[in-house]
């Protein structure tokens, strides 16, 4: 069976329970199934484990039924292994998946470097709405899709259509804004 993974990350510094609730909602999971996703892996970060555990309990008790494998974890020091699981690898029967991320620059740059279809969901509860600005900037530049908490299922089809057309970030592609973000985070090529 071909595997197709949707990786969701909320980051390490600020809780984002609303995104976890949105991706565990029945309508989002149904949309994943519609687009042949087989797995959902959620990095639920600070404060998200109770939401994830409550969902898993309902699923294990048979109150929720679907064919998507769902896993989760709090934090990992290095997300590279998760990003590799999203990449297409025909040798192991894996299709290109997608990443849904909070608007943290580290997570965004990781996804861009991996060439993944990327959906950025800004956290509206953070001060100054800086995540919305970053998400809109990257969407206008063609690097990502902006998702909204109240309509998260709609991004699945958009990301699936992008597929391998997701732009891969390289230092030699000339995008100064992305290079500046990369430099500020001390990324070395």
From TrEMBL:
GO terms for biological process: dolichol-linked oligosaccharide biosynthetic process. Residues 6-161 form the Glycosyl transferase family 28 C-terminal domain. Its EC number is 2.4.1.141. It comes from the Eukaryota. It is an enzyme of class 2 (transferase). Keywords: Endoplasmic reticulum, Glycosyltransferase, Transferase. It catalyses: an N-acetyl-alpha-D-glucosaminyl-diphospho-di-trans,poly-cis-dolichol + UDP-N-acetyl-alpha-D-glucosamine = an N,N'-diacetylchitobiosyl-diphospho-di-trans,poly-cis-dolichol + UDP + H(+). Its main location: endoplasmic reticulum. PANTHER family: UDP-N-ACETYLGLUCOSAMINE TRANSFERASE SUBUNIT ALG13 (PTHR47043). This is UDP-N-acetylglucosamine transferase subunit ALG13. It comes from Penicillium cataractarum. The lineage of its organism: Eukaryota, Fungi, Dikarya, Ascomycota, Pezizomycotina. The gene is ALG13.
